[in-house]
Amino acid sequence: MIRIYNFDTIRPNEILNRDIRAEKNVEDIVDGIIADVRSRGDAALKEYAEKFDGAKLESLRVSRQEIDEAFAQADPEFVQTLRMAAANIEKFHSKQVHKDFTITDTPGVVLGQKYTPIEKAGVYVPGGTAAYPSTVLMDVIPAKVAGVGEIVMTTPAGKNGRVNPVILIAAAVAGVDTIIKSGGAQAVAALAYGTQSVPAVDKIVGPGNIFVATAKRKVFGKVGIDMIAGPSEILVLADGTCDPAWVAADLLSQAEHDVLASPVLVTDSEALAKAVQAELEVQIPQLPRKEIARESVDTNGKIIVCSDLGKAVQAVNIIAPEHLEVCVDEPFGLLSEIKNAGSIFLGKNVPEALGDYFAGPNHTLPTSGTARFSSPLSVDDFVKKSSFIYYTREALGQVQARIADFAEREGLHAHAKSVTIRYKAEKMPEKEGEPL
């Protein structure tokens, strides 16, 4: 049963009991996998596919025929839903595109910044017990909007050697260029270093288990990554007017993901806290994934009762949740006070699943409290910023003494000379008949 705490007495380690560090044995396993993929390339990927996924693969690349067959057997209504969701995601992310700028308000000086999309992006899509076409849309479409030249997606094949057809359809709708049948740390290694079939990319995005997260952390520096994602989290901030059945259902929408998922209710109503606690016991046994939800709720779930909504917002900002539902009648009144959250769902009619699948904002979000300093996946993750500077000789001359003095004070005399040498008196040509 989920536990109830009082905000004024809960200990810091109880409110912030989240850790995404890998155990030493995970680190060692991932190190070995990365080294093996770097050494043996495709052969290693095929062996791992058979070992971990039970898939014997002749080719690592998904063919056009496989994609066509996926569409042929698909429910047209669901394909239309995917296209509608993709349109919403594209519309939202198109507003994130930055414009280059220049500053020319000082004579002889031009300053500016230009945005350039990365050339190749790798998108990791989990497999295993569930298929996540939503992850495909959320991770690929911002890259397409940013103008990335090539998008390579990796996802494990099933025992039949094929990728789940809904994943293939989502990839086609989103605009993936190459799909690779590989999962786990080995897929991350292949994207980072390249193999005979897998192009090396510039950045890797997408969620995964602890082996994937550890591999992403280890290849960072060779390539960019979006974030080190921990288990999924939801925090529902609810007042006493909320329907406890709705709140319980929203908490379970994340609890069913993973036994490590963290469902939290923060409320100013002790009556709601007890009602939600009881409602969870009614709803959990009804879920197909009830064993997962049960462990998530009992181990990582909590209800925090606060004296008022001001204290409740304090709790939210301390926890810095991945998903935050603000279930009050006037949610915009609290929005400015919320400082730390990955994605914010405002009002009683905005379940977290709306953002997961359809609304448009991204669902690849900072976890484990990292919303204190990081943001959802966006177009920004797929572009680079370069500044540029132009000075005329006259403009540099007006500040050359100040720059040289600055450099000398730091003991960097060559820096200073690189400026002043441009303004030493020019040598006059020798007299006629004498060497120049």
Structural account:
By secondary structure, the chain is of the alpha/beta class. Helix content is 43%, strand content 16%. Strand 2 and strand 3 (109-117) form a beta hairpin. The radius of gyration is 27 Å and the shape is globular.
Q: Summed up, what is this model?
A:
This protein is an alpha/beta fold.
Number of strands: 14
Helix-strand makeup class: alpha/beta
Portion of residues within helices = 40-55%
Major sheet description: 6 strands, parallel
Q: In which order are the strands of the major sheet placed?
A: 1-11-10-9-12-13
Radius of gyration: 27 Å
Which of globular, elongated, flat, extended, rod-shaped describes the shape?
A: globular
> How many helix segments?
17
N- to C-terminal distance: 94 Å
Overall pLDDT score: 94
Please mark out the parts with pLDDT under 50 across 5 or more consecutive residues, or reply none: none
Strand content: 15-25%
Structural descriptors:
about 425 residues, alpha/beta, six-stranded parallel sheet, five-stranded parallel sheet, 14 strands, about 15% strand, globular
Q: Helix and strand layout, with pairings?
A:
Layout: E1 3-6, H1 12-15, H2 24-40, H3 42-53, H4 64-72, H5 76-94, E2 101-103, E3 109-117, E4 120-124, H6 133-146, E5 150-155, H7 165-174, E6 178-181, H8 184-193, E7 203-205, H9 210-219, E8 224-225, E9 233-238, H10 244-255, E10 262-267, H11 270-283, H12 290-300, E11 302-305, H13 309-319, E12 323-327, H14 332-335, E13 343-346, H15 352-357, E14 383-391, H16 393-409, H17 413-420
Helix pairs in contact: 2-3, 2-8, 2-9, 4-7, 5-6, 5-7, 6-7, 8-9, 10-11, 16-17
